[in-house]
Amino acid sequence: MAVSVSVSPPAAAVRAAPGGPLKGRLRPPGDKSISHRAFILGLLAVGRTEIEGLLEGEDVLHTGEACRALGARIERHGAGAWRVEGVGLGALLEPRGTLDFGNAGTGTRLMMGVVGGHGITAEFDGDASLRKRPMRRVLDPLTLMGAEVLAQGEGGRCPILLQGTPEPLPIEYRTAVASAQIKSAVLLAGLNSPGRTVLIEPQASRDHTEKMLAHFGAVVASEPFGPEGRKISLEGRPDLRPARIVVPADPSSAAFPLVAALIVPGSDLVIEGMMMNPLRIGLLQTLLEMGARIDVLDRRAEGGESVADLRVRGSDLRGVDVPAARAPSMIDEYPILAVAAAFASGETRMRGLSELRVKESDRLAAIAAGLAAAGVESAIEGDDLIVAGRGGHVPGGGVAATHLDHRIAMSFLCLGLAAERGMAIDDAAMIATSFPAFQASLASLGARFS
Ligand code: S3P
Known about the structure:
- This protein has helices at residues 32-44, 58-69, 105-116, 136-144, 180-190, 208-215, 251-263, 282-289, 334-343, 363-373, 406-418, 438-444; strands spanning 14-17, 23-26, 47-52, 73-78, 81-86, 99-100, 121-125, 148-153, 157-163, 172-174, 196-201, 220-225, 229-235, 244-246, 268-275, 293-302, 305-313, 321-322, 345-350, 378-381, 384-390, 399-400, 423-425, 448-449.
- By secondary structure, it is of the alpha/beta class.
């Protein structure tokens, strides 16, 4: 295991400094997955969809722009409050220019499903990070349904020119990876199919698309398939009715203040309204196994999801072995879990992380490099990440390279709040994709950034 501690941060870096405990209450921003889907299903239903608590991050706003380009009228009428006047299934307009999704893989892949199932052609593109992400995983099933890829970047990457089909074939499709994005692209294309679309996934991935489709009036069924998988069936051409959507707080964003409070000694924080969907709370389960002092308070229902307030206190964590089967329920949380593991006593092994290599950055490599810059040993063995915990004493003092990845950026800023010499990141700009108020929110609880 190699360790190097770099020192002087470049001029554009943001630095997190260690300081007093984090105290107070915080409501994390709206869930990113649900926010994307709210715009998209709003587009596909005829009439007015009302959204409350939408995440106003760049990723979601790009999806909103794409929905506008396909014919929706979208207006903001208050903080997080948006109205979508949808045009309805089968009635989408062909966009005039390129659909620019910025940094957002979710927006891109879900909208590829929408376009793939309609008789329109659209070009998909985004930033340098998005242009590196694999799209064949979505284009392959869409092609089976009748869509055609007219142009593509190397290896099936963006920019991609996709010609949809006005009559997608109903297919039964098995994905090799448990990915809600692949599942959602196939289901969204299947919406405009004259028959039944069936998607089989090897492990259950987040189920927001299925739940929201049912909320809009589609007939969709989900049943267990094999030891860990699921089979989702959707009847095509439903009469989608516009709906009201209340977006709960994003557990993937809550993860950052949550872990920050665990590793900064003496912290006592309440995180409000966090979505407790069982397919999204693998991190919570793992942190509890590590000995985290987290009390789950006031469980209640909000907008069709279970939510709760979490009281989090500074904790002595211990290393654990995280099974591969848990990965889909915490796929975006490994960077911040690795930070928690750095402060734990003993080793943490996180298994089965191959999907981390194709996120906004190669997160396996970015985590290992960032930890090394903080003076923490780690190793990648196959698809496993092993972090040698330092029992509360992380040297810090380095600069983490963020590679246009918001979660790498936030993770290493959290590390800096508890590391002996703080920690810098090279670029905080991407944080605006998912948690625009991250620094301000944490600063209001006592965090120090400069
Ligand atoms: C998402 C699914 C996940 C996750 C992403 C959001 C979604 O990707 O990493 O941030 O909203 O469907 P995969 O399901 O492809 O792993």
